[in-house]
Design goal:
This protein has 176 residues and is mainly alpha-helical. It is built from six helices and three strands; from the N terminus they run αααααββαβ.
Length: 176
């Protein structure tokens, strides 16, 4: 006799994962309602259709197509962080944004890297980092950004000549 195998226990989603799943389901339901309403309007006007009945091949608005692609590919967080980089001056203020520019976001480590044009502004950004992380997480969702990595300014281009020591890197991060 064969014994029935116990089904493997799949861990239940919780916390942030559960919230993401619920948000994605709500967005898809809202999008479906919006697409259905849009298709009804087009049908009344003799709108665009690929055949006798509505299907996935029907034309859709560009924004709806992009949102669908982002959701299908799981690019919600990178897209949201990209939006933050575009709104950087609004988030940190005009003065700080003139001197500190976001460079990249590491999704695995959840670290935002910011380049400053002088050591004084790098120091100021380090002082403000905890408040900025809280502000970014408020905008993007809890835990999206764990840390802000501040890069000091690069020195001027190395100039080669008779008064340079071989292997010299120049003034270093004290420049600025």
């Amino acid at each position: 006799m064969s014994t029935p195998q116990e089904p493997e226990k799949v861990p239940e989603p919780s916390g942030v994962d559960l919230a993401r799943v619920a948000l994605r389901a709500a967005k898809e339901a809202a999008r479906a309602r919006g697409d259905a309403a849009q298709q009804k309007k087009q049908a009344r006007r003799g709108g665009l259709r690929s055949g006798a009945r509505a299907d996935g091949r029907d034309p859709m608005a560009f924004g709806a197509a992009i949102n669908r692609l982002i959701t299908e590919r799981g690019w919600e967080t990178p897209a949201a962080v990209g939006g933050v980089m575009g709104r950087w001056p609004e988030i940190v203020g005009e003065k700080l944004a003139e001197h500190c520019v976001p460079q990249r976001y590491d999704e695995d480590e959840r670290v935002l890297t910011v380049q400053c044009d002088s050591t004084a502004w790098a120091t100021e950004l380090r002082r403000l980092a905890p408040a900025l992380v809280a502000r970014l997480n408020e905008d993007l969702g809890h835990g999206t950004v764990r840390m802000i990595k501040v890069l000091n300014p690069g020195g001027p281009a190395r100039r080669y000549g008779p008064l340079r020591a071989p292997g010299s890197t120049g003034p270093g991060d004290t420049y600025g």
